[in-house]
């Protein structure tokens, strides 16, 4: 070989720098350790202490007549590759640093070797090319005029050394021959073959197949990446058998005209681009070599690096071909805002959707029964699932639990039972306002859970002004999710809230101390993160959301009052593959940050607690929950239900079962909440409401027609 003395940088410890080197008056000396020290101080997570104690090095670049003081190898690698994190794990980056890769041909190979070096995907690169740089090469090789007539492998080695002098490079400036190929391949993990000589292509593959070394090739035509896994398939034919059972002996003595058809067969003539196919005919006539574009070559560096990353990540990389054809991609350009730009591209505001017929009748025009039905339907429910069937006859309005409208977090239909109770409360108030309430009853047996408002004297009862005021408030009730000002509630307000929430079966736990609110903010933040990162819960969460203003169920995305940064990432947040990566990295803290910050801005957090855990107990709790919600709004507070993921899990094992990958965390959060705010043995939480003063608009959710 091998490496000419002016192709490799030399590393020295501080006390080993030759005196004759530093004595040269023309030597350019520089020191980057001051800046890198500051960068090390700013790393997140903080750098391990050992890096601060690592001795620096001096690196000499003879072709630049320069001596540079740099951090030691571990510190250098930690800093240089810091921005790779979350694209590659620390373990994967470490494995990549052990790879020994040979690159044959340093035209396309220059871009590949450069990209591998940039991404830290090798610890040693062996570069083989006999050719010198010519001006005609500089449409695709990122060299300079000062490199003209230097060996292509030497040019690449110099550039890599200037990026990472700790990365070992070896230069075979004679290219690959039958005499040196065994030495070149010794100990390699992977070969990237990018040479022009067809006989060398065959020789490299024959030897790699014998040694079980995988071979990658990037043709740069149509972005074609070729993979031959000789490590997994020791009998695989060269070039996938596209040119027959080739052997190097068969190519001896063949001229270029004879080799070109073989090369075209390998490229698959029906799949190469038209310019490349035409150029194959014109070789030796109107063109002297295969055409290549700089952009295609640079793309090749990226695709080979992507393939190497898959190897270190343990992802599948089978033998075969894939095409990254930029022209095909560009033919498929789509305008992301086209659907929102009608009338020749003029952006117009969407006309508000009309209310569905069942919501258009004025209250005063409704009969007593119609008003009771309407009020019942206006009750809140988790995810606006409306888990009920509401029916009416001459004597009653009945709200029956619909067990088909449920979700994973609706453990044993407890959240749904709370919603049925809220609907029953609304029905009772509406009937009382019109003076037609006889009584309410609850049906709780093995088959049915229902609340029934019995009516009397329809259209003949005397009205209740107090109940009418309550009715107006509950019909105007909505979820207000805005960030609050944190101002505490008055003692009088707290007394009124306790009165609204206290019955023989319920009590109110009001968190008003800032430490308690912050503690709950931390719990809800971690709970939300687990919900995002659990595939099933993440899927259900986004199924609940809708951006269709005409839909009669689900939560309108516009009502979430998302901060701009989160709203801009909404389509990313809904992607399951993104959540899986965050989970793999142990990240995703930001996923719960919005919920945590909203709770932290609260005036109070109200935890309604009930006695008993039967379906009927949750229904009764729901009656009080709606009464509490309306009372809070009448006091001028914005109300936002913020129940943690595990709220309706009656024990740690049930909480654990809510998530396939974060069950232990949910169980621990449940235990933390109960340890912080203990409940009696016969008690369970009904709902958690966040109260704030934020002046956020009230969003009244759409409702399905009665009986749906």
TrEMBL record:
GO biological process: cyclic threonylcarbamoyladenosine biosynthetic process
Molecular function terms, GO-annotated: oxidoreductase activity; tRNA threonylcarbamoyladenosine dehydratase; ubiquitin-like modifier activating enzyme activity
Family annotation (Pfam families): ThiF
Domain of life: Bacteria
SUPFAM superfamilies for this protein: Activating enzymes of the ubiquitin-like proteins, FMN-dependent nitroreductase-like
Region ranges (Disordered): 335-358, 476-495
Domain THIF-type NAD/FAD binding fold intervals: 86-222
UniProt name for this protein: THIF-type NAD/FAD binding fold domain-containing protein
Organism: Gordonia terrae C-6
């Amino acid at each position: 070989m091998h490496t000419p003395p002016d192709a490799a940088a030399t590393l020295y410890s501080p006390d080993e720098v030759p005196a004759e080197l530093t004595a040269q008056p023309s030597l350019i000396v520089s020191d980057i350790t001051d800046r890198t020290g500051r960068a090390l101080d700013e790393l997140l997570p903080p750098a391990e202490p050992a890096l601060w104690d690592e001795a620096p090095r001096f690196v000499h670049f003879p072709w630049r007549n320069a001596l540079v003081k740099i951090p030691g190898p571990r510190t250098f690698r930690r800093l240089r590759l810091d921005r790779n994190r979350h694209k590659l794990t620390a373990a994967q980056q470490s494995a990549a640093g052990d790879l020994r890769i040979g690159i044959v041909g340093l035209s396309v190979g220059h871009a590949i070797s450069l990209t591998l070096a940039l991404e830290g995907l090798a610890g040693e690169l062996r570069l083989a090319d006999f050719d010198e740089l010519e001006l005609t090469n500089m449409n695709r090789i990122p060299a300079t005029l000062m490199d003209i007539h230097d060996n292509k492998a030497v040019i690449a080695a110099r550039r890599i050394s200037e990026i990472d002098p700790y990365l070992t490079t070896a230069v075979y400036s004679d290219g690959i021959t039958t005499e040196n190929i065994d030495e070149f391949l010794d100990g390699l993990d992977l070969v990237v073959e990018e040479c022009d000589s067809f006989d060398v292509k065959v020789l490299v593959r024959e030897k790699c197949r014998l040694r079980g070394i995988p071979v990658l090739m990037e043709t740069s035509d149509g972005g074609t990446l070729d993979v031959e896994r000789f490590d997994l398939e020791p009998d695989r034919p060269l070039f996938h058998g596209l040119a027959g059972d080739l052997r190097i002996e068969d190519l001896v003595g063949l001229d270029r005209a004879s080799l070109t058809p073989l090369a075209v067969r390998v490229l698959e003539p029906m799949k190469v681009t038209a310019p490349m196919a035409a150029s194959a005919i014109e070789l030796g006539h109107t063109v002297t070599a295969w055409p290549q574009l700089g952009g295609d070559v640079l793309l090749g560096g990226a695709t080979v690096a992507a393939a190497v990353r898959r190897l270190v990540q343990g992802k599948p990389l089978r033998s075969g071909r894939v095409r990254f054809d930029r022209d095909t991609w560009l033919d498929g350009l789509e305008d992301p805002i086209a659907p929102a730009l009608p009338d020749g591209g003029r952006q117009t505001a969407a006309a508000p959707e009309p209310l569905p017929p069942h919501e258009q009748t004025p209250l005063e025009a409704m009969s007593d029964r119609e008003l009771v039905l309407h009020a019942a339907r206006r009750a809140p429910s988790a995810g606006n699932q409306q888990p009920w069937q509401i029916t009416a006859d001459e004597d009653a309005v009945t709200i029956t639990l619909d067990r088909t409208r449920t979700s994973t977090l609706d453990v044993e239909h407890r959240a749904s039972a709370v919603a049925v109770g809220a609907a029953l409360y609304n029905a009772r108030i509406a009937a009382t306002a019109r003076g037609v309430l006889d009584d309410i009853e609850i049906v709780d047996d093995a088959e049915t859970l229902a609340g029934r408002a019995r009516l009397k004297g329809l259209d003949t009862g005397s009205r209740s002004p107090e109940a009418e005021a309550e009715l107006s408030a509950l019909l105007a009730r909505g979820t207000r999710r805005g960030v609050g000002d944190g101002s505490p509630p008055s003692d009088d307000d707290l007394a009124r809230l306790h009165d609204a929430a206290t019955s023989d079966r319920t009590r109110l736990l009001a968190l008003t101390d800032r430490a308690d609110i912050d503690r709950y903010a931390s719990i809800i933040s971690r709970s939300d993160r687990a919900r995002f990162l659990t595939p099933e819960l993440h899927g259900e969460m986004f199924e609940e959301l809708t951006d269709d203003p005409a839909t009669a169920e689900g939560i309108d995305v516009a009502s979430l009052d998302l901060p701009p940064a989160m709203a801009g990432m909404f389509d990313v947040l809904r992607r399951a593959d993104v959540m899986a990566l965050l989970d793999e990295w142990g990240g995703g803290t930001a996923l719960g940050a919005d919920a945590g910050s909203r709770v932290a801005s609260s005036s109070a957090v109200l935890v309604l607690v009930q006695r008993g855990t039967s379906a009927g107990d949750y229904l009764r709790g729901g009656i009080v929950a709606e009464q509490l919600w309306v009372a809070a709004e009448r006091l001028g507070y914005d109300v936002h239900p913020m129940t943690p993921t595990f709220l309706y899990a009656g024990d740690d094992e049930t909480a654990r079962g809510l998530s396939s990958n974060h069950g232990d965390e949910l169980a621990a959060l449940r235990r933390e909440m109960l340890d912080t705010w203990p409940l009696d043995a016969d008690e369970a939480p009904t709902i958690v409401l966040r109260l704030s003063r934020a002046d956020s608009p009230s969003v009244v959710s759409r409702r399905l027609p009665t009986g749906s």
